[in-house]
Amino acid sequence: MRRFSLPIALLAVLAGCGPSDQISVEEAWIRLPAVAGRPGAAYFAIEAAGRDDALTAVSTPVAKRAELHESMAGAGGMMTMNALETVSLKAGQPASFAPGGRHVMLFEMTPGLQAGNETRLKLVFASGRELDVPARIVGAGEGAPE
Q1: φ and ψ at 21, to 5 degrees?
Q2: Based on the structure, what is the number of domains in the chain?
Q3: Which of 62, 79, 80, 120 has the most neighbouring CB atoms within 10 Å?
Q4: Which domain holds residue 107?
Q5: CA 142/CA 29 separation, integer angstroms
Q6: For residue 96, what is the domain's CATH number?
Q7: Which Gene3D superfamilies match (predicted)?
Q8: How does pLDDT run across 61-86, given as a tens digit for each residue?
Q9: What burial class does residue 33 get, using C-beta atoms within 10 Å of its C-beta: 0-12 exposed, 13-18 middle, 19+ buried?
């Protein structure tokens, strides 16, 4: 029977967790609703490196329910919004969740949230991976944080 040394075994394990399996999420932020009791929205930039995956769910401690959505121009130029079950992520191709496009609708948000504070977003993927990322809270009329 052949034996592996600890350093070689450790390298073999770490090789399976390399950058090719990473998902990066940047610039996460939440816009508060203009009217109390209405939904807010979360936005971020996301990219899967090395292999395809799919975003299947998002949650945050500041909302009871979150749904993946996409806004698009409908008939007659009217904007429409559709719920999404998943968002496919192609390896090496960034995806954007931004106003006027894909976003996360946040329902029944915690009362009294203040712009300028920070919370967390938990993203769940088809591969079983989960990411917990910080998200800046901005007011209803404010743009994306810098």
Answers
A1: -105, 5
A2: 1
A3: 62
A4: 20-138
A5: 11
A6: 2.60.40.1890
A7: PCu(A)C copper chaperone (2.60.40.1890)
A8: 999 999 999 998 877 878 888 999 99
A9: middle
